[in-house]
Amino acid sequence: MRPRRFCQSSLQPGGALFLAEFVKGLLSDLTDRVLGAEGADPLQTGPASVANQLINTRLRAVELERKAREVDELEARLEELEAALERQSKRREYAT
Questions:
Q1: pLDDT of the chain along its 96 residues, tens only?
Q2: Which of 5, 40, 85, 91 has the most beta carbons within 10 angstroms of its beta carbon?
Q3: How many Cβ atoms sit within 10 Å of the Cβ of residue 20?
Q4: How many CB atoms lie within 10 A of CB 30?
Q5: Which of 19, 15, 37 lies closest to 28 in space, CA to CA?
């Protein structure tokens, strides 16, 4: 089994790597606009600051969702292991 961080789905829209690249692009665009890079539409620091705060809030929400899914998956796996252990234990009791 491949580690989750290397799953193909992370490259798909909505995947972790795709999201990271998208956010980096947004932050790069904000930086260029605030610093007045050539060819970029100027943006005042106030709106850029608010946009950055919203991006950070969204990232925290995404991370919370990821952690909640991970906990749910681990709980399900643990329940499966406990059930298998219980079945194995019962088989041993009947064998003796």
A1: 334 444 555 556 667 788 888 889 999 999 998 888 888 888 898 999 999 999 999 889 989 999 999 999 999 999 999 999 999 998 888 876
A2: 40
A3: 12
A4: 19
A5: 37
